[in-house]
Amino acid sequence: MEKRFALLIDADNVSAKYIDPILDELSKYGNVTYKRIYGDWTSRQNSSWKEELLTSSITPIQQFSYTAGKNATDSALIIDAMDILYTNTVDGFCIVSSDSDFTKLASRIRESGLTVIGMGENKTPMAFRKACDIFTRLELLEGENEAKEEVKEDAGVKDIDKSTIEDAIVKIITENTNNGRETGLAELGNRLLKLYPDFDVRSYGYSLLSKLLEEFPKIRLLKKGNYVSVKLAEGTNVEEFIRETVRSAGRDGLELGALGQEIHQKFDNFNVQDYGFSQFKKYIRSIGGIEVRKSGSQNMVRYRENG
What we know:
Layout: E1 4-10, H1 19-26, E2 31-39, H2 47-56, E3 59-62, H3 72-87, E4 92-96, H4 103-111, E5 115-120, H5 126-131, E6 134-137, H6 138-142, H7 162-178, E7 183-184, H8 185-195, H9 209-213, E8 219-224, E9 227-232, H10 238-248, E10 254-255, H11 256-266, H12 280-285, E11 290-295, E12 298-303
């Protein structure tokens, strides 16, 4: 049965241009049964939202700003969220805001066993991101990757370093291996989200987790039909043979095709796709300290000059 979600939007802290990407993204998780947006609709600040409400069938909730500095919108959204929670008619919430005021609300909903999906702009504080099961930056949905350069460092909001992600994956695979289990790609993705709710492969320019994993030399993908699993790279076998072969070739290196022939002679069952790559050249380039350069009509494999 498809999961049911309540979509609650803080109009004061999110731009109206994101409404279509928000609805498209949320449709991946289930059916949206509540669609409400909170703000002072007498304010010119929210005028851009008014045109979107009827088109997207979103119910506007009016909250007047009676006192300067007091956010009545937040209070109304929180009260409605708790009312919906107690009806037991949804499986999760999507809270759209760039404000940390909803951190406690997200934590409370999760305590009740429901899923919380957060969506907000780059400026969203880390506290709210961490309180959600999944947090998605709206700039990524809009395709505005250049907005990553505008992240405020004083808010502590940065993309997770790739080396941190790779180390986390190595730990997950190792734990499963020690328990006699293999690691499926889907499980890996779920575990990463539990560790880093704001992890999103789109932050790194990819649409699929498997494509991001191809960048990591410590990890290999194995495909069995439609099932994809992840394992640690065999650093003492094929890659060590490649390094030794390239080293023995000296400064001139050796031609890519010749290297491929030597690998197949040594390892009868070698298949580059077993290592998560569609092209032999990409696989060779993933090996630390080795480079592939064009020399005339040939691709030459050499050790890096600084490696």
